[in-house]
Each structure stands twice: as C-alpha cells, then as structure tokens.
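RECORD TYPE: inverse folding
INPUT: structure tokens
STRUCTURE:
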C-alpha cells in the first residue's frame, strides 16, 4: 500500500512539475500578455485600399509576431492579407503575409516574421491590408476604444483614434530556460493569488 502511495505521489509531482518544463522548452515564441477583451460588435472592414494602421510598444526583446482576431465571414476572402511592420522612423522593417482561405470566421491569427533583437520598449506601427480583395471579400478586425500600456492608437479611414486592435505581441525567448522560468513564475504567482484571495 505504501509503495502505491509513493508511486502515485511521484507520478503527480512529475506531471505537475516536470511536464510543463518539458512542454515549455518546445515553444518557439511566447506572448507578452493576454489578448485584451473586446466587443465583437466593434469591427473595421478591410479590403482593397481600405486598411488599418496601429501603434504599439514592444515590451520584450526579439519581437517576432503579432496576433489578433480576424473575421472572415463564410471564408469570402481568399486573397492575401498583408501586415507591414514599421519602426519609429516609419521605415518598413518586416512584412508578413497570410492567405484569407486559411482564416476562419473569428480566428485568432499570428503574423510571424524574423525576430527584431533590440525591440525592448520601442514604439512600432503596423498596417493590415488585403489589397486584392473587393468589397464582397471583406475581412473585419475587432478594435478597442481605449489605449493600454502597449496598444496606443490606430488609424482607419484617415482618422486617428485612441486604442486599437486587441493584439498579442509575441517574442522569441533568449533561451529555453527563460521560457521554463516564465512558466513557473507565472504559475506560482497565480497560485499565490488564489491562496491569498
């Protein structure tokens, strides 16, 4: 009976402590935070020359992807959706292209590009266009009305507004151990909040 208790305890400890570390070491990019909540009725249409641009702050080094939710109702858009990334001097530094036929209605999608090593605390802007799409092939992006610590402002129809797309910024970890450390520190901080609340 004691052997069974020890075996069960060791199995539980292995699953709780070692499996997350093993899984974390396989991650190629990590999010800098959670996607901000948004109202699904607040959407911007994108097609042809009608696009959206947005400013944001990168909170980590090695910026490598930007994720957001996109609406592609009935998979009408099967054209290229292009994200162009600009530095604070408005110089184009990265481009990422997705195809609308791979985006379901309301999917969270990632625009992935080569990492930018010195991105910590720098302001960037991006544009999202679907230049070959006509009005019947519209995609829609969701937006929030108020800025956050990383989402600053957006421009649509030549008007600038506070807030922007509810994006998640992804970074390439410096090392596998950095990811493991973040997973465990995040996990323990959540446990402490639960026990103190």
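DESIGNED SEQUENCE:
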């Amino acid at each position: 009976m004691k052997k069974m208790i020890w075996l069960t305890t060791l199995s539980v400890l292995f699953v709780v402590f070692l499996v997350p570390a093993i899984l974390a070491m396989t991650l190629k990019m990590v999010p800098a935070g959670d996607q901000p909540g948004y109202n699904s009725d607040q959407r911007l249409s994108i097609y042809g020359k009608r696009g959206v641009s947005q400013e944001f702050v990168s909170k980590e080094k090695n910026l490598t992807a930007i994720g957001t939710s996109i609406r592609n109702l009935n998979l009408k858009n099967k054209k290229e959706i292009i994200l162009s990334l600009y530095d604070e001097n408005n110089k184009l530094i990265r481009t990422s292209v997705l195809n609308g036929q791979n985006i379901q209605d309301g999917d969270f999608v990632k625009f992935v590009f080569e990492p930018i090593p010195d991105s910590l605390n720098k302001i960037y802007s991006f544009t999202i266009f679907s230049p070959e799409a006509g009005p019947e092939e519209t995609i829609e992006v969701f937006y929030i009305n108020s800025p956050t610590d990383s989402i600053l402002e957006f421009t649509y129809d030549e008007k600038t507004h506070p807030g922007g797309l509810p994006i998640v910024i992804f970074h390439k970890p410096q090392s596998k151990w950095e990811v493991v450390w973040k997973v465990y520190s995040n996990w323990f901080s959540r446990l402490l909040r639960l026990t103190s609340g």
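NOTES: The radius of gyration is 20 Å.
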